[in-house]
Amino acid sequence: MQVKIVIGTVAFMMTMMLFGYAALREPARLERFAAADLGRNIEKGAELYVNNCATCHGAAGDALDCFNAAGEPIACIGLPLKDEYLLCGEPSNRLIDQDYKFTVRDYIYGTIYAGRIGTQMPTWSAELGGPMEGYEIENVTQFVLNWRPELCTTEGPPPYEWPLTVTELLAAEGVTTPGDATRGAELYDRTYACTSCHGNPAQAGSARVGPWLGDLAARGGSIVDGYAAADYLYESVLAPNAHIAAECPTGPCGMPSGMPGNFGTRIRDPQSMIDLMTFILGNNLETTGVEIEYTRR
Amino acid sequence: MATFIEQVQEMGLKQATIAKADEVVERITAGMNINDIRAALRGDEPRRPNPRLRPHADGFWLHIRPSFYHTEVTHIYPTFRLGWLSTWLFVWETITGIFLMIFYTPSPVAAYQDIWNILGNVPLGQLMRNLHRFGAEVMVLVVALHMLRTFITGSYKKPRQFTWATGMILLVLTLMLSFSGYLLPWDQLGYWALTVFLSATEAHPGPEFIGRNVGLLLAGAPQVGAGGLLRWYLLHVLVMPLLLAIFFFVHYYKVVLHGHSLPPGREEIGEDTAKRVPKEERTYFIPDILTSELMWTALATLILVAVPLFGLYNAPLESHANPLVTPLHVVAPWYLAWSQGWLKLADKTFIAFVLIPGLLVAFTVMPYIEVGKSRRYIDRRLGLSVSMAFIVIMLISNWMGSPEYLVASSPDQEVFQEILPQEGHSVLKEVPYSELRPGVYLPGQALPDRYHLTHALHELEGAIFTHGCFMEGKGKPNPLHLPACRPVIQDDGSIKYRTYYTRDAMPNPEFQLIIRQFQANMMELIITAKVEDPNRPGEFLINSQTVGYRHQDSNYEED
Asked: Of A28, B166, B231, B330, which one is least surrounded by beta carbons within 10 A?
């Protein structure tokens, strides 16, 4: 019996020591598992993103390479998500421009959850009739936020320093004027997906959110005093909040503008800007030489 | 009796305190003072009248325990301590279960994240979850072995038939307790195991409304959801433990009433002398049985803690339950896998509503209808042989429950499943992130300094080996040394290729593992499979791929 008492006591003490040992390694383990939780959420988010979001936002999140179910390239009608303007900084510049008072995570979650009225972005939440449960929306949100490490710490090529007048733009080094309207159409339709809000310029009434731009060449000079159509368009691309259009098909047309304010960094060279303007306005890029309201970031 | 102050005046403070302490201990133990306890621990003979019997007579905790056992039943054989161990495991599960309950909400919105919170935010949370799950599986095993032991030693025979019958109830309750906890993490594993289990209600042979309504009662809705989770949670933490506790006391009361049966050879055939214990054959509960039980409890607890702590057992956790995505190969827990094996062979209705209930009833009534009186092994050769055959059948049935047996999925999907499944252990995802570098890799490729990836590629080679075959004469090399293809023309005119391992092998399969950088800290893992039709060159029998993602922090190594 004494032997049993000794064995039992030793076993009990060893068990207690095991708990002590477990407790000692707990802080490091907890850290690993908390990180694993996030890591696996991001993996699930990647799966969901590739299956649901890449069609419009691009597989790499840059809204450049979009494919339909048959694998054919199509226009990316979504905005780029791997985007400093959206992701970097808390609040990021997009949140500042939208006067959004919460975090980037909330902004992304809310956008996926409810969709964006007037755009092609649908409602994803199952609570609102969409296909995703809350945890799945969180997974996708974490996946999008996971572009931050590569986006917000590494320095990409600096954005082009846009001149403040169209005159200087047209005189910039290495550009040809007027631009290439065919390439401009490609930029308008596919690269920057202007189509998803402003519709097809060749088809009146096709605009969904922003004003239709098919007649901008005719009326652009009479919107803001002292601006020619080219000046107005150039400013609107770079600084959407400078002047809000009075007519928008789905309204309301108020501050802040629904148009993203990041084209100053997304459009990387003056030739693309001129091609785009040429596509919208035609070959006549007349300017009054007025200085536009634009602050470089 | 004198008050404490009077005692102090009479004996002085020291003596009075000792006397008071003695009195308190005697009250707590319901009859043994400090000297009695010391004497018992030293192994001395008790004084007269024996104070060690009083806790049984006057105390609550020991009143259900016998004050002495027959010495013959206190050795490892014949009981193997399995009954006591089952009881301790029930207590152990209650303790660890209450710990987990503190951090758990039975709601589909919260449950899964609560488990991750237990794993990543609660100190000792992972250990507690592992202890609970490991304890549950050990409990199933111990209860089953307890039943087996009772059968082998013939202890279920008259007059202990009713003890055996309550034991059957306890076995079913133990299985259901274990299984009802399966759903609670709200992951794919538990969700689909329960969904498959509940689909048995559809096979109900009676009127349709019975199966439908029983299904509704158990699932809370046509599909397992918030209501179902809450119900199975309440079954798990309230109903089943309560029922188990009730039947445990009935069971144990009968054990005490009839006494532990002696080893079969110890008594005359047809006699039961367990209750007639001669003085010299008695082993008293205090101190011998008590210390023995405490020792076994301490040893069992040590093992129960050490095994999960040193990573020998890890409670699985798959991804969030998703009613829209059925994982390939939904497998029942091992203690119910035999039923899944049977379901592959015969009609669902027959298995779920005739065979299994029939077996349970047969087991329960067996001691009442059995005619053989002898408990001796030599007289029970037939019964023991049948029981051994039954065990073998159950083990084979368990294997039949695994996806290896009679589950038809295409061979490329089977290879994917072995290396990079959607759920469960993945040899590829367990490769440390530092070894995953972008590139294209081939099955069986050896990579210097990347041991784990080499291992995964080796496993991929092994999976292809069992699901692939080699067609000669096409000028193709056979780098994986695949077995030769044996073409078999099917009824529909198509050709399947056989090998020793499989009836549906891929001729000259070409697999690749592609690792791509997907985000700065995440890799995309793609396994591609291409199988050219040997009879129509340029056309592919199989051209598929599977994709997984591996974040650098996901820590599958510790799964």
From this structure: A28
Q: Are residues B374 and B475 in the same domain?
A: no
In this complex, the residue of A5, A29, A43 whose CB is nearest that of residue B291 is A5
Which neighbouring-strand residues pair with B510?
A: B530
What angle, rounded to 10 degrees, do the helices at A26-48 and B111-121 form? 140
Do B124 and B39 have their domain in common?
Answer: no
Which distant-in-sequence residues (6+ apart) come within 8 Å of B494 by Cβ?
none
Task: Of A77-91, B134-148, B435-449, give the lowest mean pLDDT range.
Answer: A77-91
CATH of the domain at B273: 1.20.810.10
Give residue B13's region: left, alpha or beta (phi > 0; psi -120 to 50).
alpha
Given CB atoms, is B298 within the 8 Å cutoff of chain A? yes
Q: What average pLDDT does chain B have? A: 92
Within 7-36 of B, beta carbons closer than 8 Å to A belong to none
HSE-CB for B269 with a 13 A CA cutoff: 10
- Under the banding of pLDDT at 50, 70 and 90, the label for residue A170 is confident
DSSP assignment letter at A74: E
B97 vs B102, B132, B231, B236, B332, CA distance in Å?
A: 9, 6, 17, 10, 22
Reported as a single tens digit per residue, the pLDDT across B496-531 is 899 888 888 999 899 999 999 999 999 999 999 999
pLDDT reading at A204 higher than 80: yes
* pLDDT value, residue A250: 59
Cα of B13 to nearest chain A Cα, Å: 34
Number of structural domains (chain B) is 3
- Mean per-residue pLDDT, B87-97: 97
CA-CA distance, B33 to B19, in Å (whole number)?
10
